[in-house]
């Protein structure tokens, strides 16, 4: 690789050299670490993967090398690359992932593509390509969508309906109601979520008077900010069923 206009190479024994003009300077590693074949120029410095799974940051000042260890829980590191977003991608024995801006390693695994990694590449659209000598090549693309349940630690649910109301998103599930705002789960409507807890919510609707209607399998609920919660069902209104499916 080219680092600060100097060529830095690694030989078959895992030794690292800087080809600086007419002189060759070798990295003198006091830890007797065996470096594996991966050497990448990053904004943090030269990153080198070791056979033991350690990640090192190497810097060359024009005369001598300096080296420091970056502690991540890994096995043999086989490939390193920094992408255009500043994430440093690392591939190891059976997993891969990236270092975020805070230096935390975010591990990723893919069933059926989990060994013999050789290289990373970023294309002009920001997709990350990962090569494996056993499995070929895999493309990683960043989605435009976010899984709100996953990012908020909510277990997977069947969602039957969603509506925007009072700056929040109300999600009707097979087990009740979940309310999200831009910051995650919102507890502002705890009275309403408690009222329909455990009920299958099939449809949600906001009417012209800004009342929120919920079709559930335990009645038809109407929520008004001033009047509160009203439930229409067999017991209260002699409806023919407590199961309500849709509304307009």
Textual characterization of the structure:
The chain is mainly β and 248 residues long. 6% of the residues lie in helices and 47% in strands. It has three helices and 23 strands. The strands form six sheets. Strands 1-2-3-4 form a four-stranded antiparallel sheet, with no helix packed on it.
Structural class: mainly beta
Ranges where pLDDT stays below 50 over 5 or more residues in a row are: none
The biggest sheet amounts to:
4 strands, antiparallel
Total beta-strand segments = 23
Succession of helices and strands: EEEEEEEEEEEEEEEHEEEEHEEEEH
Q: What share of residues is helical?
A: under 10%
**How many individual helices?**
3
- State the separation between the terminal residues, measured CA to CA: 64 Å
List keywords for this structure.
four-stranded antiparallel β-sheet; 47% strand; mainly beta; 23 strands; 248 residues; 3 helices
Summarize the structure.
The protein is mainly β. It has three helices and 23 strands.
Could you outline the blueprint of secondary structure elements for this entry?
Blueprint: E1 2-3, E2 6-10, E3 16-20, E4 23-26, E5 35-42, E6 45-50, E7 55-60, E8 65-70, E9 79-82, E10 88-91, E11 96-99, E12 105-108, E13 117-122, E14 128-132, E15 136-140, H1 148-151, E16 159-165, E17 168-173, E18 176-181, E19 184-185, H2 190-195, E20 201-206, E21 212-216, E22 219-224, E23 228-232, H3 234-237
Antiparallel strand pairs: 1-2, 2-3, 3-4, 5-6, 6-7, 7-8, 9-10, 10-11, 11-12, 13-14, 14-15, 16-17, 17-18, 18-19, 20-21, 21-22, 22-23
